Structure formats: C-alpha cells, structure tokens
C-alpha cells in the first residue's frame, strides 16, 4: 500500500472532428486548470485532439515534431504536470496508430498506442505493439485506450506487471456506458486495482457520447463520476485505498 498521494484530473472537453486548432485550445485551457487545482496528471479521452475522425486519421496524425504536440509539451513543462492527450500518431511503416501522447514535465514526450481495435478500425489504423506504463509518485499506472479494456488479457498484463492503477482514455456511447462500466468495475474488483476512465462529451465520428468520466475503487465501486455531458475536470486524489474527488467546470 502506498502512503504517497497522487492527483489525477480526468478531462471532459468539447471537441470538433478534425478541427485541431479548436480542440487544442480546449486542451490547453483544461491542462492549465488542472495544474491550478494541483493535479499531477491530466487525462483526455480517445482521439481528443482530432475527434474520433478515423477517415482523416492519416491526415491528422502527429509526432513529436508536430506544432500541437510542441505546444502541449511546453505547457506541461511550464506547469510541471503530465498531460495525456488522445491523437492519431504517425507510423513510418503503415497506417497511423490511435495513441496517447504523454507530455512529461521534463519536456520529453512518450507514446502509448491502442493494441486492441474495435471492429472496422483496422481499415484506418494499425494496432499498437506494446503495453504502456507510467510511474508517478511511487505508483505504477497502466495505460489503455478504449477497446483495450474489453480484452481481458490487457488488464491481466497490467496486474502481472504490478500496476497500482489502470487508466483508460475512451469513447463510450450512452448505450454502451452501463456494460462498459460493468467491465471496469469487475476489473477493479478482480485485481483490487483502482480504474479511472476519461470519456468524451461531444458527438464525434458519428457517435453520441456519455461523458460520466469516473473512478472505480479497488473493490469495484464507482466512487466518483463527472456530471454527465458537462465540460468538466474530475480531479481524483488517491492515497492508498483513500479516494477524494472534486469536479471543476470548464
């Protein structure tokens, strides 16, 4: 059990498909707000920087040299916060990946790419090849993107790697929220590992979205949830088995 505390902000932000400059402004504002409220880490939903616009994933794909990533990284450094941003990332040998750019306070940018794709996604993107982890204040965080968490092997891998927390950046519809919540709850309970979800609030890629970003504790209870489809930060403070949360309107 950890005596260290970490504070993680789950960001529900308004996005527009392929309007990267609009989306970037929402991200920069949310990162600044999260930092002002003491967050160590802010997590955005799947493909948050571009919207879930798979048809344009190759055109919108970014890498470390992209201006958007540079600006996000600069803000992470200035505020000494980690920002996990959903985006398509360039693949030198094929279709782009569905990724999260992990902008660290050191100025470095790391990447995690979705390994388990939904039906139809492989027409536009490639599968990631490796698990993603992040160490923060003595905790080991396992990273996932949407369908990753519905593949039992992914959570099992996280447990076997001795992860303390499981974080998912996702796009979940109102119809799918209850069943996906059950999966996240069961995972948390089975592995006694808190699970955090950052979900969309805007219609994107033709999908309605449920919002309701949340955290499930180590016994599977949802102990905090953002307010539906409102633009908010849900800030979760975690210390051992203790969880305290608050919502901040954006």
Describe the structure.
- This protein is α/β, with parallel strands linked by helices and 250 residues long.
- It is 24% helix and 30% strand.
- The chain contains 5 helices and 13 strands.
- The chain has helices at 20-36, 57-60, 67-79, 152-160, 174-191; strands at residues 5-12, 41-43, 82-89, 97-103, 109-113, 132-136, 139-145, 165-169, 195-198, 214-216, 222-225, 232-239, 242-249.
- It has a 7-stranded mixed sheet with strand order 5-4-3-2-1-12-13. A 6-stranded mixed sheet has the order 6-7-8-9-10-11, with helices on one face.
- β10 and β11 (222-225) form a beta hairpin.
- α1 (20-36) runs parallel beside α3.
- The protein starts with a strand and ends with a strand.
- The relative contact order is 0.18.
Features:
5 helices, globular, seven-stranded mixed beta sheet, alpha/beta, 30% strand, 250 residues, six-stranded mixed beta sheet
Number of strands: 13
Low-confidence stretches: none
Strand content: 25-35%
Structural class category: alpha/beta
Helicity level, as a percent range? 10-25%
Q: Note the total helix count.
A: 5
Overall morphology: globular
Oligomer: single chain
User: Numbering strands along the chain, what is their spatial order in the largest sheet?
Assistant: 5-4-3-2-1-12-13
Order of helix and strand elements from N to C terminus: EHEHHEEEEEHEHEEEEE
Biggest sheet record: 7 strands, mixed
- Straight-line N-to-C gap: 33 Å
Radius of gyration: 16 Å
Mean pLDDT: 96
Write the layout of secondary structure elements.
Elements: E1 5-12, H1 20-36, E2 41-43, H2 57-60, H3 67-79, E3 82-89, E4 97-103, E5 109-113, E6 132-136, E7 139-145, H4 152-160, E8 165-169, H5 174-191, E9 195-198, E10 214-216, E11 222-225, E12 232-239, E13 242-249
Parallel strand pairs: 1-2, 2-3, 7-8, 8-9
Antiparallel strand pairs: 1-12, 3-4, 4-5, 6-7, 9-10, 10-11, 12-13
Helix pairs in contact: 1-3
């Amino acid at each position: 059990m950890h005596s260290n505390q970490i504070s993680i902000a789950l960001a529900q932000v308004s996005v527009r498909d392929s309007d990267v400059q609009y989306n970037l402004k929402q991200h920069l504002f949310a990162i600044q707000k999260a930092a002002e409220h003491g967050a160590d880490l802010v997590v955005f939903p799947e493909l948050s920087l571009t919207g879930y616009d798979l048809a344009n994933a190759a055109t919108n794909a970014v890498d470390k040299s992209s201006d958007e990533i540079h600006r996000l990284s600069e803000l992470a450094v200035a505020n000494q916060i980690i920002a996990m941003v959903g985006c398509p990332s360039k693949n030198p040998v094929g279709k782009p990946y569905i990724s999260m750019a992990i902008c660290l306070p050191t100025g470095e940018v790391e990447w995690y790419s979705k390994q388990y794709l939904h039906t139809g996604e492989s027409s536009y993107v490639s599968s990631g090849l490796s698990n993603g982890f992040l160490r923060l204040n003595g905790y080991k965080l396992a990273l996932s993107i949407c369908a990753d968490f519905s593949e039992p092997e992914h959570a099992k891998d996280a447990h076997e790697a001795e992860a303390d927390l499981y974080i998912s950046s996702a796009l979940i519809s109102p119809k799918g929220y209850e069943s996906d919540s059950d999966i996240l709850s069961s995972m948390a309970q089975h592995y006694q590992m808190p699970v955090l979800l950052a979900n969309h609030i805007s219609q994107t890629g033709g999908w309605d979205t449920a919002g309701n970003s949340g955290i499930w504790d180590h016994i599977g209870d949802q102990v905090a949830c953002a307010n539906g489809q409102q633009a908010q930060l849900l800030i979760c403070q975690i210390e051992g088995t203790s969880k305290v949360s608050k919502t901040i309107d954006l």
